[in-house]
Write a structure and sequence with these properties.
The chain has about 290 residues and is an alpha+beta fold. The chain contains four helices and 14 strands. It is globular and about 40 Å long.
Length: about 290
């Protein structure tokens, strides 16, 4: 055996001995800080929401919920331009003809009106919140407004009243927590919203609640705690705008809201549907007609 054969054999023996002592299989050592899954894996992704796959809008970070309120993460709702005549819901917040609705109900309308019974009342002015799904409509339909609930009141049961699929309807729900809702599209904004679990519908119709957007969200005392914005049909969730956004848009519209509290009509759980229909028939909740 030649001398370089001895050298090669010696190198093989040394390498084998080193591998035996270290126990290495040639792989890189595991990281001490394993990589996290992408955040969108945990975002809400239901029938009316899509995964967050684009760069988020550059807006100030939304306020975080209080420690006592569950944070349900983030969801995305696709914002689409209205192409046909559509309907939504609205409710009065002042006795001078000032109504509240969802921004997406009113934003693309060439003509917009409130349907009260057999009468269509034109909207003379609308104010859209720049970064929340909420809007104010000014009309000549002076109707008794709903009082606002106190901001410190705990959230539990809520009643959503409006016109799902263009027909009168009421939904009872239970509070789940808060989430950040990204309105993805032309306007591209985020906002904190309340999230509710749907419990009972009156009447018990199936399918989407489209058309309920802009409707009043009332507590068991019959006071305003929000405005309906979106739904997640598969999970039976309803997203609503927070009272803070109402205060903000009142400032944009240069109107003064009444103090929280005031006379109201309590809603009994066993009669929530009848109470909701009485409010609709009394023109306290209106259908919004949007013509594009």
């Amino acid at each position: 055996m030649r001398w370089f054969d001895y050298l090669a054999l010696t190198a093989i023996i040394v390498a084998a001995t080193a591998q035996f002592l270290t126990g290495s299989d040639g792989a890189a050592p595991p990281s001490e800080t394993p990589r996290r899954p992408a955040p969108q894996q945990f975002a809400e992704q239901q029938d009316d929401m899509v995964g967050n796959t684009e760069t988020e809008p550059r807006l100030p970070p939304p306020s975080v919920p209080q420690n006592s309120v569950p944070d349900l993460g983030q969801g995305v709702v696709e914002e689409k331009s209205a192409r046909t005549t559509s309907t939504g819901s609205a409710f009065p917040i002042l006795s001078d003809g000032t109504w509240l609705t969802a921004r997406h109900v009113a934003q693309d309308c060439k003509k917009i009106s409130l349907r009260l019974g057999n009468h269509a009342v034109p909207v003379s002015r609308r104010v859209l919140h720049p970064f929340a799904d909420i809007a104010i409509l000014k009309t000549k339909a002076a109707v008794t407004p709903f009082p606002f609930a106190s901001g410190s009141a705990p959230l539990g049961t809520a009643y959503h009243i409006g016109f799902p699929k263009g027909r009168p309807g009421v939904v009872a729900s239970g509070f789940l927590g808060e989430m950040t809702l990204w309105h993805k599209g032309r306007h591209n904004y985020r906002e904190r919203v309340h999230v509710w679990a749907e419990r009972v519908r009156y009447p018990q119709r199936q399918g989407s609640l489209g058309g309920l957007s802009g409707g009043a969200v009332l507590d068991p005392e019959g006071r305003i705690i929000g405005v309906t914005q979106a739904e997640s049909p598969r999970r039976g969730r309803i997203m609503t705008g927070m009272p803070e956004r109402v205060s903000e848009i009142a400032g944009f519209a240069a109107i003064t809201l009444p103090a929280a509290g005031g006379a109201s009509t309590p809603i009994a759980p066993e009669k929530f549907g009848e109470t909701g229909f009485a409010l609709i028939n009394g023109y306290r909740i209106a259908k919004v007609l949007c013509r594009v």
